[in-house]
Amino acid sequence: MASKTISVKTVVAIGIGAALLFVLMRFVAIPSGVPNTNLNLGIAILAIFAGIFGPLAGFLIGFIGHTLVDLTFGFGVWWSWVIADAICGLIIGLFWKLYKIEAGEFGIKNCIIFNVVQILANAIAWIGVAPVLDILIHKEPADKVFLQGSAAAALNAAVVLVLGSLLAFGYSKTRTRAGSLKAE
User: Fold this and answer.
1) Measured between alpha carbons, how far is 138 from 145 in angstroms, rounded to an integer?
2) Using the 8-state DSSP alphabet, how is residue 40 labeled?
3) If we measure between CA atoms, which residue out of 58, 64, 51 comes closest to residue 23?
4) Position 138 pLDDT exceeds 60
């Protein structure tokens, strides 16, 4: 039985993705008007890296990047939101082969699939996982955390829809399509 190991390329992508997620979440956070909820450009990085490198990379980038953000704010790690980011990356990454970003074939159909998946992933992570864990772990009031989760889901989905799609199209155009080169 062959053992499947994680590639060096994926390990490097996890490190770069987590670092980019950290920088964008920590230093480019735009307040949304909902307490403790920001417009987060880092979610586009999480989505694009998960879409290129798969579920393990998506999970670890979300987990490591968000943990670093919380550690640098000095109020402790808010595990419910760290886990939600990790699950969002995991879900988006589960369908990475359908997007064909790395293959240079990311077109309109792939973009629609990518965005349907990311919207569902954001809804599951931020309307489901984060509020429930906030209630269970932190004893937060349900109305507060479901408002925050709904705002985060909507903002994240919008950022990935615009910025994530543009990044996916742009990166895909830099890749050589299989069979596009011919011998002379």
Assistant:
1) 10
2) E
3) 64
4) yes
Question: Roughly how many angstroms between the first and final C-alpha of the chain, as a whole number?
Answer: 40
Q: Which two tokens stand for residue 158?
A: 């919008």
DSSP track, 160-176:
IIIIIHHHHHHHHHTSP
Strand pairing class (29-31; 38-40): antiparallel
Segment 149-176 shows an average pLDDT of 96
- Residue 63 · residue 125 · CB < 8 Å: no
pTM: 0.91
Encoding tokens for residue 125? 């992570």
Q: What number of other Cβ atoms are within 10 A of residue 181's Cβ? A: 7
| Residue 74 confidence (pLDDT) above 90 | no
In the 8-state DSSP scheme, what is residue 38?
E
Give the helix/strand (H/E) hosting 146: helix 142-159
